[in-house]
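Entry 14. Structure prediction run on the chain below.
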Amino acid sequence: MILYFIKVALLMTVLLIIYKVFLSKINTFKFNRFYLLLSLMLSLVAPLIVLPNLFPQFQNVSHQFERILEFDEKESLPIMAEKASDPSNTVLPVESDFNFVEKSESKNPLPFKKSTLIFVLYLTGIAFFTFVFITKILGFSKLIRSCQQENQGDFKFVLLDEDTLPFIFLNYFFINKEIYQNNQLEKEILEHELTHIRQKHSLDILFVEILKIFLWFNPVVWFYKNVIQLNHEYLADQAVNEAFESRTDYQLLLISKITQKSESFALSSSVNYSITKKRLQMMAEKTHNSKSILLKGYAIACSFLALAAFSSSVQGFQVNPIVTFAQSLEKYEKLIENALEADDRYTLVLKNLDLENLSEAYNTLSEEEKEKASEFPFLEEAAFVKLKELQDNSEKIKITFKFSTPPAKKTIREEVWENWKKEKNLSIEIDDELVEVNLDDYAKEDFALHQVVETRPKGTLKKPEYLLKLTTHDYYEIKHIQVKKVLNHIIAEYQNEDKLDIMYFMKGVNKNVNNTKENLEEIILEGILSHEQKEYKPGPHYHEGVFIPASLTTKNEKWKSVNIFKEQEPKF
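Output returned:
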């Protein structure tokens, strides 16, 4: 959400600068009006649009922003889940009631989220500026109802007692009653204000005012209103000069109006020296068609590049809502879930996987989200080609991906529970937090896992002390079930009954792989694809370079260790 608003603000700024550089000094006022309004709309939409891969130079812009901004937008539950997914905190379950393992460090969940405060402030701003906007509208409504009106068909005169310059709002023409009744309104001023009504300039201002409610913190929106109102004046001046021949008389008339008293109405254009000076200068501006076409072309080209730069870049056009990141991650996880075996939720069958949609969902994830998503590192371009080839050959090669499974829940025997309650040298840790509690306040059925750790310093003759680690059922779900799936094994089964088991969890032995141009996942899939065309060298197969332990079971041999990556000899 925050990233979206930052992109909107920056994109609005860039598009407004483009307007200032190329369009603000030429008299293409109708085009300028269209450009200003469209740039506001596209600034809201562009950060949500996913561009095709025709624009690879803009591919990582979103991720760069995400790396700069790392707000805590998650609850403490995912924070604990992230901790649980850390391999350093993993404890292997055993059958005995006393386990001698190292104590894991625990983390306290954050008491308050930064994003909650930001969201409250944002809603407060919306409420305040909504109140201001409604107050302005009610002010006009009260003015209209309290004053005499004269219907002129397409518009209405509203006769004011105040001595003020004429102004309009929607199809209402506000004018001093005495000037109207004495027919003292200059024909140029009448034409100017009627142009505002005919071209519905008030709708532009209302649109910007509504944007200001939701983007109240974005100062660029406020600048846009001033620029749009000034362009409205240019449009009205142009209509006057086309209707009447004497441009000089009209300019003198405008200068005379500067010194007149005028009420301030936020939803209508104002008259002052600075604005009048710009209007007079623009009346004298003459832009050749060739120059205007060239400048408009530059503006369109630069705007297109800006819009592309602030958009994502993956295959196919699509529009995501503001919560696109969370929904993309949810879509990714759902596609993984759909490919899992019905009776084994930790085994994924490649044949069942919707690769195209999975790749699309993966490419919309930020780098931070990819770290938290279920591990399936075969969606980058080079490996994805091999993965698709393997899926197309599913009838010949069955591929399954085995994720790490959670520890099995353990039941506490009654006699063991009673002994723990009597033990004096027993510290208690519940859900990774050291606590001072009485076990009499709990039932043994409250816990899904248990582990006892001896804490007596080694080499001493002191009486042993123990740490009892207990895991509640709710925390078990958080720590072991609601965490990212981690890939352990890749199994390839062939028609000739060969079975390869690639131990992916041991990828850490390739410490130097990141310093090479080799893609580990691509090499794994290539090794699986080319297995039937190779003969493996006998003897030790571990060597320097890319390597992950793998075992091969054949019709004639039950098990042997092989290296599917290098040192293979082709069959002749």
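Confidence is low (pLDDT under 50) at residues 69-112, 313-325, 568-572.
Filed with the rest of this week's runs.
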